[in-house]
Amino acid sequence: MFEQYKSLLSELVKFKSVSTDASFLSEIQATVVWYKKLFQDNGFTVQVVEGHDNPLIVADYVADSSLKTVLVYGHYDVQPASKEEGWDSEPFALSERNGRLYARGVIDNKGQHLVHVVNVFKHIHNKTLGYNIKFLIEGAEEIGSPNLERFIKENRKFLKADFVLLSDGEISGNMPNIEIGFRGIFNATLNIKVGNVDLHSGMYGGFAPNAIHELAKIISKFYTEDNRISEDELYLESAPITKEILENNKNIPFFQEEYEKITGKRKFFTENNLDFYTKTGLLPSIEVTGIQSGYAGEGYRNAIPHKALAKINVRLSPTQDPQRVFASFKKFLKKITPDYIDWDINCDQSGKGVFVEVDNEHVAGAKKILETVWQKPVALKYVGGSLPIITFFKDNLDLPTLSIPLVNEDCNMHGANENFELSYLEKAMEFSKIFFTKK
Ligand SMILES: [Zn+2]
To answer: Where is the Peptidase M20 dimerisation domain (predicted)?
Structure first.
C-alpha cells in the first residue's frame, strides 16, 4: 500500500495547484480532473462544485446505509514554491532522501489527506470499510477558504455526516496528538500620516515628526516589558486558563533547545511563566508582519517620511469574537496614538477560534487507536494556528470534529524542503488503516 501511496502522491504533487496566484488556474483545473477520475475509478460518486473559489470535490461512497458517515476534509491547493527559495530538489516533484519524502504539498495538505484516501480505497477493495465516506477536498484553503462557509450553509443535506475527520497539522512533543483548540484570527492594515509631504532631513531633522519613528513608538506600546499585551481589554472573553489546562499542557514536551537551534533564536518570550502550548494556544497575540515607509533602495534619500503602514496579524483566544477584539484594538490605538497623527485601520480577514469537543465516542476511539500505533499516550493539544473550517462545520452542520495531525514537526510547512518523515508516514498509514476498519 506504501507503493500505491507514493505513486499517487508523486502524480499529485506534480500539479502546481497554487491558489495564491491566479496564473496557476490551469494547474488547479488539471488537479481537479485527476481527483475526479481517481475517485470515480474507485467506485465513488463525484461532484465537482464550481462557484465557490476554486472547484471543490465532493466524493461520496456508501458502503452500507446502517454504518455511520465520516466526512473527511482536505485541501489540494498549495503555497507557491521555487527552487531559488532553497529547495534541495525540485519542489513540484516527489523526492525521497534521508528517510523523508520531499515536495510542495507533501504534508500541506495533499500527502496528509491522501493517507486516508488510500486506506479507504483499500478497505473498499477488501470489503472491510467501517464507515460511509464523504471526501470534501477544497482548493482555496491557502487563501482562507473565503466562500467555503457559504458552500457548507447551502449544502447542509449534501454534507450530512456523523462527524468530520481532518489531518492538516503537525505532531508536537514526539507523541500522538489530537487537536482540541484553535485560535481565532484577524488581519489589519494600519496607516498613519503626519502631514502631507516628506521633508528635507537637513532643514527639518529633529524638528518635524517622522512617520517611521511615530509608527515604531505606537508598535512599541503593544506589549509590556514582560511580554503581555498592554491593553487588558484585548484579553476580555479569552478562555480561562484552568488548572486542568495547565496540567494538560505541561504533559506535552516542548523541545526549546531544539527550537532555538532550528530557528537561530536565542530567546523565546512568554508571560507569567506560562508554557509554550498555553501561551500560543489560548492567549491572544499581536504580530506586526510587515511595515512600509520611507526609502530603502540603493543609496540614501535624506527625507523625513510623512506616512507609514503596518500589516498586523492578531491571534485570538478560542473563545474571543474577532469583531469585538478588533473594536477594542481600535480603541487601544486611539489611546496610544497622539493627536498630531492621522491614522486609520482596516480589518481585512477574520475568523473565529474554536474549542473542539472531546467528550465523544469518536475522540475516545481515535485516542485508543493512536495509543496502540504509537505505544505512547495521546497529547490533547491547543493549537496556535487558526482553522476556520472547524468552526464552519460546528456552526453550520453541528458536527463533532476529529483533528489528527499525521506529520513530523520539522516538516517545513509553507517553507523550502517541505517534507514527510517516513517513520511518521508509517504510523499515519497504520492509524488510518485501523481507523477505517469495520468493527
Ligand atoms: Zn498551508
So the answer is: 188-340
Dist. CA 364 → ligand 1 center (Å): 28
**R_g of the chain, CA atoms, integer Å:** 24
Query: What is the pLDDT, as a whole number, of residue 387?
Result: 87
What's the pTM value of the predicted model, to 2 decimals?
0.91
pLDDT on residue 69: 97
Residue ranges of domains in the chain, CATH in brackets: 2-182+353-435 (3.40.630.10), 184-238+284-349 (3.30.70.360)
Three-class secondary structure of residue 58 per DSSP: strand
CB 386 within 8 A of CB 182: yes
Distance 413 CA to ligand 1 centre (A): 7
Dist. CA 279–CA 269, nearest whole Å? 9
Rounded Cα gap, residues 38 and 16, in angstroms? 18
Residue 44 Ramachandran class (φ > 0 left, ψ -120 to 50 alpha, else beta) = beta
Q: What are phi and psi of 308, to 5 degrees?
A: -155, 155
Interhelix angle 2-12/110-126, rounded to 10 degrees, is: 130
